[in-house]
Write a structure and sequence with these properties.
Layout lengths: L7 H13 L3 H7 L10 H15 L5 H8 L5 H9 L7 H29 L3 H19 L18 E2 L6 E2 L3 E6 L5 H16 L3 E5 L4 H15 L11 E4 L9 E4 L2 E4 L1 H9 L5 E5 L12 H18 L2 E7 L12 H5 L2 E6 L13 E9 L4 H4 L3 E5 L6 H8 L3
Parallel strand pairs: 3-9, 3-10, 4-5, 4-8, 8-9
Antiparallel strand pairs: 1-2, 6-7, 10-11, 11-12
Helix pairs in contact: 1-3, 1-5, 1-6, 6-7, 7-10, 8-9
């Protein structure tokens, strides 16, 4: 069955109605009708011009013609002016938008066919498909969702790991430290405590370490730090390691950064997890580490994922040389909701003390983690106590 991808009668009815009674443009805009929803290019131009003139309170046939200039189509304009204006245009707007979405879906379908025929790249097909669906979803909604303050239920930010190292839910957080400090140990323990506290499903990609080494560290933490039972965690913690090739979720194409099609595969694979911990950020970035635009685009990609699909996402990131401060573009820090900096504890002579402990600084706190952490700086046990030999061996592998 052939589906109608446009309806000239409905489009001319809308345009005739807003020219005859310009205040109806407000109804068009409130229902998210856009110039691109019209089929004919002239009708798109006409809708934009009438909208612009309405804002200036000067909608007039002659001024419309002047504004359109050489884009003016006398025959198409005659069809508009011959159409009968209606008092209720909501139904017509809805039908025109439906046809517009079908045309867009057809356009995406054609792009997918082109990629299959010309490139034969499944990841590129997936990217075209997901980009199309995301754009369709965004175009289906109003620009922003406006709420009456009286209808909103007040809630504080929700956190996981509140009893040890809190992280905001539905957000992206960053944990930074210099080399050899024990970031992976810290986050392994945080993951286990989150499982204890929230019964969450946690995925960790410790991409610099073999999975066997991560398992060794995991057992050390469970047995000697938490002094718990390994059986408690077997159904809630999954990991990947250096045997999985890292993915650049941003890719440069003709001087523009695009989202890799593999990002959407990655999201689909991790649908069942509540908490996702990725180490290190830079291995999965793909952009210029010092470029703020690239950094913001990357973090925003994960922030939208976290918000829409209710994920808690934590990146482990390298600090600057001899520092726990985040390396690279400042937008890495600006775009996340929380940042922890991890440091070795030293005495006044700059000698390391309390080898099994680490100093955690809450360097950024948009959601109120301090309420649960207790202070902006705390100490946390990362390694087994009185195990210098074991710690030295382990740290040499980080």
């Amino acid at each position: 069955m052939q589906t109608n991808l446009y309806n000239m009668q409905f489009e001319t009815t809308i345009l005739s109605s807003i020219i005859f009674e310009p205040i109806k443009i407000e109804e068009c805009l409130s229902l998210s009708l856009k110039a691109g929803d019209f089929y004919l290019p002239f009708y798109r131009e006409l809708f934009e011009v009438v909208t612009e003139l309405y804002e200036k309170n000067i909608v007039d046939d002659e001024i419309i013609k002047q504004k359109l200039g050489n884009k003016f189509d006398e025959k198409a304009m005659l069809q508009v002016m011959s159409a009968n204006p209606v008092s209720n245009i909501a139904y017509y707007i809805d039908e025109v938008k439906k046809a517009s979405k079908l045309r867009y879906a057809q356009e995406i379908s054609n792009k997918i066919k082109e990629v299959v025929q010309e490139e034969g790249d499944y990841n590129q097909v997936l990217k075209v498909m997901n980009d199309g669906l995301n754009n369709l979803e965004q175009n289906n909604n109003k620009l922003i969702k406006i709420n009456s303050i009286n209808t909103i239920e007040a809630k504080e930010s929700e956190f996981i790991g509140k009893n040890w190292l809190p992280f905001p839910k539905r957000a992206v957080s960053l944990v930074t430290a210099g080399g050899g400090v024990g970031k992976s140990f810290l986050l392994l323990q945080a993951a286990l405590r989150i499982i204890d506290e929230n019964n969450s499903k946690v995925f960790m990609w410790l991409s610099e370490d073999p999975v066997e080494l991560s398992k060794f560290r995991y057992e050390m933490i469970v047995n000697k730090v938490l002094k718990s039972n390994i059986e408690k965690y077997k159904n809630n913690l999954d990991i990947a390691g250096s045997d999985s090739e890292t993915i650049h979720f941003l890719e440069e194409d003709r001087y523009k950064m695009n989202v890799s099609g593999m990002f959407y595969q990655f999201k689909a694979m991790l649908k069942k997890y509540d908490v996702i911990i990725l180490d290190p950020l830079i291995a999965m970035f793909g952009g210029d580490e010092n470029n703020n635009a690239h950094a913001k685009q990357f973090i925003n990609l994960f922030s939208r994922w976290a918000t829409v699909e209710n994920k808690t996402i934590i990146f482990i990131h390298h600090g600057t040389k001899n520092s726990a401060q985040s390396r690279g573009a400042s937008a890495f820090v600006d775009a996340v909701r929380l940042v922890y900096q991890v440091e070795i504890i030293k005495n006044k002579d700059e000698e390391q003390v309390e080898e099994h402990m680490r100093l955690i600084t809450l360097a950024k706190d948009n959601n109120g983690a301090k309420k649960y952490l207790g202070d902006f700086q705390v100490k946390r046990q990362v390694f087994p106590e009185n195990s210098k030999r074991s710690i030295s061996f382990e740290m040499s592998t980080i």
